[in-house]
Specification:
This protein is an all-alpha fold and 82 residues long. Helices cover 65% and strands 0% of the residues. Belongs to the TRIAP1/MDM35 family.
């Protein structure tokens, strides 16, 4: 598994990755799991929370916000459902 963008999040990312790979291979691929009942969702939220703090500490959160704002109109066009 790959390392997290933020070293301090490696442990929680590893827990999530392990959980997800097990769920994906043992349940989802066998037709016994649905994407909306993934039991690893809590671990993913923990990882997101850790990343948000790390990104904010490094000032990357503002760069992401600016990039999202810059592409908002284009994203809206391409994300429309047909």
């Amino acid at each position: 598994m790959s390392a997290s963008l933020a070293q301090e999040c490696n442990e929680v990312k590893e827990r999530y990755d392990t959980c997800f790979l097990k769920w994906y291979s043992e349940k989802y691929l066998r037709g016994n799991g649905k994407t909306d009942d993934n039991e690893c969702a809590g671990l993913f939220k923990d990882y997101q929370k850790c990343l948000k703090v790390a990104l904010k500490d490094r000032g990357i959160d503002k760069l992401l916000e600016e990039a999202r704002e810059d592409t908002k109109e284009n994203d809206a066009i391409h994300m429309q459902r047909k």
